Amino acid sequence: MTATDKMTAKTKQAKGAAKETLGRAVGNERMTAEGRAERATSDLRQAASKADEALRR
């Protein structure tokens, strides 16, 4: 995973967390779920990257 990919994943992770928090604050279940999904996707992408880097060593 390149530095650009890592930055993109971190940005999406932060965006998802913000969307989830905002959705909870206003009581919008759909926004909360979308934020949770974005954050989970970014978490999985980072985990896959770390596993790939560990296997390459």
Uncertain spans, ≥5 residues at pLDDT below 50?
Answer: none
Which percent bin holds the helix content?
over 70%
Number of strands: 0
Alpha plus pi helix count: 2
Strand content: under 5%
Sheet with the most strands, sense and barrel status: none
How far apart are the first and last residues' alpha carbons, in Å? Answer: 14 Å
Radius of gyration: 13 Å
- Choose one word for the global shape: elongated
Provide mean pLDDT, rounded: 89
Task: Describe the protein's architecture and organization.
- The protein has 57 residues and is mostly helical.
- The chain is built from two helices and no strands.
- Helix 1 packs antiparallel against helix 2 (29-56).
- The mean pLDDT is 89.
Task: Provide the descriptors you would attach to this structure in a database record.
57 residues; mainly alpha; 91% helix; 0% strand
Q: Could you give the topology of this structure?
A:
Blueprint: H1 3-26, H2 29-56
Helix pairs in contact: 1-2
Structure, briefly:
The protein is mainly alpha-helical and about 55 residues long. Helices cover about 90% and strands about 0% of the residues.
